[in-house]
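task queued by scheduler; priority normal; single chain, no ligands, no partner chains; default sampling; output format set to structure tokens
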Amino acid sequence: MSPFELVEPRSLRAAIDLLDPDDPSVRAIAGGTAVMLMMKAGVFRPRRLVSLRRIERGFSGVETGPEGELRVGAMAPLAVLERSALVRRDWPVIARTLLTLSNVRVRNVATVGGHLAHADPHMDLPPVLSVLGARVAIAGPAGERSVPVESLSTGYYETVLRRDELITALTVPPQGRKRAAYLKCTTRSADDWPAVGIAVALEMDGAAIHDAGVVISAATDKPTRLAAAEAVLRGASLDEATLARAGEAAADGLDIVGDAHGSASYKKQLLRVYLGRAVRAAAKGAA
């Protein structure tokens, strides 16, 4: 690795002031699980890394807000979410998803904010948070703004974050009566990057689907809402014919990206199959 400057500010404001909006070689680092791999591979050579590990402890909490929403500080490790009794009780789809997100060593170090800011399209949490309607708070020199997780990524490793902005918090609305599930198909181990990941959230009245949200990842360059599949599911009965139509609607016209985890045609067939499985898992309330 090339030499670089490492600074450890003790406040959010100081960290933002150390970032450079015009220099892509200056970057914030939280857990460092992704950045360090990129540095070792030589694809990223920083001039300065701004470590966030010493900033205020208030950015590491997991709690509920006044309206029942889940509030997570950006510096909270993924393992804290995984083990949170609050998350397991009220947002079980998040806790279940984390069980096969990489491995326990990574989850102990990687942070919520870093996970979302990295914007690798194969990541597991963004489609789940997107289908639940989650938002992130983003701070910069001009103040703070709120962005839906669904709109955060703009493509491979690209987000709406400016170079002098940081994610400070994640907010997830109450799951309430929604039934949600996330399924992924991996070509190697269960905790590997997926070839396809599908998150589903349903509102049901008996066997009828009152409303549906479906977001795909890994097969596209960013988490993508499958509006055509949602339209098929909405107002329909949960049966094999409905699931088959939803799978075809999702696959038709979607720009699938092939990679080392599977060809585009293979992933399109996985989408047809796994969408039905994810909808059924959501309807049962467990993955």
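post-processing summary
- The chain has three domains: 5-51, 57-172, 179-284.
- The mean pLDDT is 93.
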